[in-house]
Amino acid sequence: MDEWIGSGGTAPLTSYTEAVDWINGLIPFGIRPGLERIERLMEKLGQPHRRLKFIHVAGTNGKGSTCAFLTSVLIRSGYSVGTFTSPYITKFTNRFQYNGVDIPENVLTELANKLHPLVEEMAQTELGSPTMFEVATALAILYYAEVCYPDVVVWETGLGGRLDVTNIVTPIVSVITNVGHDHTDVLGDTLEAIAGEKAGIIKPGVPAVTCVSQPEAIAVLKAKAAASKSKLYLAGEDFSYGSAVVSGGLQTFTFKGPFRSLELGIAMKGEHQLSNSAAAMMALEVLRQYMAFILEDEDVLEGFRSTFWAGRLEEVSTSPRIVLDGAHNPEGAESLAKSLPQFYKYDKLNLLMGMLANKHHESYFKHILPIVDTLILTEPDFRKKMDAEDLQAIAERLREKYAKENLVIKVEHDWGQALQLLQSITAEQDLAVVSGTLYLISDVRSTLLRQPNSEKGW
User: Fold this and answer.
1) Which of 105, 226, 266, 439 has its CA 20 to 30 A from that of 90?
2) Is 381 exposed, middle or buried (0-12, 13-18, 19+ CB in 10 A)?
3) Domain Mur ligase central, which positions (predicted)?
């Protein structure tokens, strides 16, 4: 530990809480696209990321679920796996997992103390202080490269790809789940612009897998792959997946790849999980075919079957029935609207939602309003929350064109009170859904599952 001690002679962060508070204290530095600060940090640490094998996952929706599928199958197949994801649902340590288990609090504190003096030093330079996400990314790299040494790291981008901090790595395979309208304030407001940012994770000679479906986005990815001399495995051309048969809690479908076909069963609900699992399967096939990964059919099938990801069409209460789903953009809302009638029977659908202020809420409502009987609008406990009255104004403007005839819209600013209202109006034959930003999902989930120590964040 001596070499990890700051300039003051003692480790400045004496507890897990202090370490997390310090990292979260960097949030005001915001999202600052670019790799200069993480490159400088890695240089000072001896380039630890170069000792690791990464599967890099980008996309507008489905990144977390795809990472979960990859992690589950690889662990089942006997590999040790690091998984770096965001945001977290329950606790800050969720971001940094090894074989499905969170980083120990004392290890996180030690690694934060190793980074602390470097961050303080950089804050005094022309580069400015590293951001919260840059420090979290550096901490993940240190954990995997110097503490637990996984065979492979499943590595989720934070925002976009090209200028995202996670893009400091050169992976063994890249995955781009899909492209949709999200974070347009940073990534651009056209599908081509957003696809261009996601395509930034395609590295020279490294194979890439995608389920992107829009022709203009596909063209961007194909051009980037060709320029990088990388093989692009495209859904619909290089591999395919059929529609699912839903039975016994499983969605079963056929995956057809260039090397073999398999009948996959997944317990994750929703049509969108077919493409997420198919992308994961194609990436695994690349590892099996070209990188000598041993992936037996039995382990692959069981790995997919047993995959779970919190807050994605997750039923957390039976009386009343409450389902959580972190759909927070138009594409997520479309998937949610399609999936609910497929998996649940109900008389009335009551939906509680809260949003951040930087999302395409109008397009979100166009998918949600036609299926909802009572809409409760609230505000997440987060600094960038969207005012519930502003959400109400958008919903009312769209009511005549999109909503059910007798739609009831209620506003309750306090999310806890809003949740109680949702519970009180949902009868036995009805279904309650909580949707929107994961900051709201996180709080509601910890309340309903009685997890008093829950944290939350990006």
Assistant:
1) 266
2) middle
3) 57-283
Give the span between the Cα atoms of 81 and 62, in whole angstroms. 19
What's the rounded Cα separation, in Å, for the pair 379 and 81? 36
Hey, how many other C-beta atoms are within 10 angstroms of the C-beta on 145?
A: 21
Instruction: Count CB atoms within 10 A of the CB of residue 21.
Output: 12
Distance of alpha carbon 188 from alpha carbon 19, whole angstroms? 34
CB neighbours of 393 closer than 8 A, spacing ≥ 6?
Answer: none
- Cβ neighbors of 248 (< 8 A, separation 6 or more) are none
**Domains of the chain and CATH, by start:** 16-306 (3.40.1190.10), 314-449 (3.90.190.20)
Q: How far apart are CA 456 and CA 442, in angstroms?
A: 6
The model carries a pTM of: 0.90
- Report d(CA 453, CA 125) in Å as an integer: 37
Q: Is 267 helix (H, G, I), strand (E, B) or coil?
A: coil
Instruction: Say if CB 158 and CB 77 are below 8 A apart.
Output: no
Q: Identify the pLDDT of residue 309.
A: 86
- Tens of pLDDT, residues 323-343: 999 888 888 899 899 999 989
CB distance 330 to 442 below 8 Å: no
Question: Phi and psi at residue 117, in whole multiples of 5°?
Answer: -65, -30
pLDDT band of residue 174 (cuts 50, 70, 90) is: very high
Mean pLDDT of all residues in the chain? 92
Helix (H) or strand (E) holding 339: helix 330-343
Residues 6+ apart with CB under 8 A from 40: 122, 127
d(CA 51, CA 49): 5
Rounded to a whole number of angstroms, the CA Rg of the chain reads 22
What token pair was written down for 362? 């109008």
